[in-house]
Amino acid sequence: MALDIESWERTFQELIQQKKPRARWTLKLDEKLQPDCVAPEWKQYQQRAFGSFRCSSCQRRWASARVQVLCHMYRVQPMSQGKVLMRLFGQRCKKCYRSQYEKPEFSSKSAMRILHNLVQHILERCYSKGIRTVPEIPVTVEVPLRGSHDTANCEACALHIFAQAYYLAVIFNFSSLSPTLIVLSFVGC
Q1: How far is CA 32 from CA 60, 63, 137, in A?
Q2: What pLDDT is stored for residue 2 in this prediction?
Q3: Where are the alpha helices (DSSP H) in 77-171?
Q4: Among 13, 31, 80, 105, fewest CB within 10 Å belongs to which?
């Protein structure tokens, strides 16, 4: 199903109002959104999703369980309203030379999962002082996948964007020349 942002925004509004009846939030796509470039007072949230792609050149179709979704959100204090900017990262066709990044399509089940997780994150970070009350719904693989993730044709991978709660980095301790493993917490939310 192609992305219908108006439908997504209606569903998003319904989900948030189930928990916060007077809340008024907007959801907009923003293709220029960058990870870790969060404006003051805004919070960041990333998640992975299951989506499908269609090459605009050769019409080839493929699916991925590693579609990256980036959101920046802002709650207007003390009112119960806010804004969410969302970017969906694309993938290129591995059969076509120099193909463009195609935007993902989502089943209604996958779209609901994305929006549910987003609403839960907003409730936790903007209304509950960061206390997790409900676990995130994990990615569900909707069709069998063959092979590993095609990092060479993934827009998020090309930009070094990964939806993980923590980044692991190996930093070299030059005094002993031995690697030290350091866990860096996620910037933003």
Answers
A1: 27, 24, 27
A2: 60
A3: 108-122, 155-158
A4: 31
How far, in Å, CA of 41 to CA of 145, rounded? Answer: 39
Task: Give the tokens for residue 70.
Answer: 């980036």
Taking only the tens place, the pLDDT of each residue in 12-39 is 999 999 999 999 999 999 999 999 899 9
Only one residue has tokens 């209604």, namely 108
End-to-end alpha carbon distance in the chain: 30
**Which residues make beta-bridge pairs with 46?**
70
Name the pairing type of β-strands 43-54 and 166-173. unpaired
| Rounded-to-integer distance, Cα 17 and Cα 171, Å | 45
Using CA of residue 8, residue 84, residue 188, residue 136, what is the dihedral sign? Answer: negative
